[in-house]
Q: What sequence folds into this?
């Protein structure tokens, strides 16, 4: 399948590829600075949404930068987790969501992020602390499950 120039960056062309992880077919922009990415089966719907719902102020320029000064990726809100008014609405997030909590709707123009070193470090520390708590919680749950399994097998 051949594709026209990217609807977002206007510089790269879209390409089809097979993901190594799940073997599914996807479409992405060859310009790695943009997060144009979707399953092949949803390409027409995704392209229409990008054309109509992403603000003109984001098109043809570099993707917005996150708190760590890295290009964000474009996603479409999932029907299962969003309020009905936000379903199918495009937004930008950091490509490393475990490290950075950057989020902005793509139909609203936002000021470029200005983060100083201290704020970036604070975000990083918060992210590490959240991971530590998650691991601690998972260990507790693991021990409970093992205890229940031992009781069940006895």
A:
């Amino acid at each position: 399948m051949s594709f026209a120039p990217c609807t977002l960056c206007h510089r790269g062309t879209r390409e089809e590829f097979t993901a190594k992880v799940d073997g599914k077919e996807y479409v992405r922009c060859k310009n790695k600075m943009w997060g144009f990415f979707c399953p092949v089966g949803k390409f027409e719907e995704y392209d229409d949404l990008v054309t109509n719902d992403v603000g003109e102020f984001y098109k043809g320029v570099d993707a917005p930068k996150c708190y760590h000064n890295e290009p964000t990726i474009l996603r479409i809100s999932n029907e299962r987790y969003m309020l009905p008014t936000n379903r199918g609405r495009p937004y930008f997030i950091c490509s490393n969501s475990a490290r950075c909590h950057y989020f902005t709707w793509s139909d609203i123009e936002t000021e470029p992020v200005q983060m100083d070193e201290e704020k970036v470090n604070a975000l990083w520390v918060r992210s590490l602390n959240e991971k530590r708590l998650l691991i601690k919680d998972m260990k507790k749950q693991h021990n409970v499950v093992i205890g229940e399994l031992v009781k069940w097998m006895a």
Q: What stands out?
A: The first strand starts at residue 14 and ends at 18. Helices lie at 43-53, 117-153. Strands lie at 14-18, 25-29, 37-39, 72-76, 90-94, 103-105. The chain has a mean pLDDT of 78.
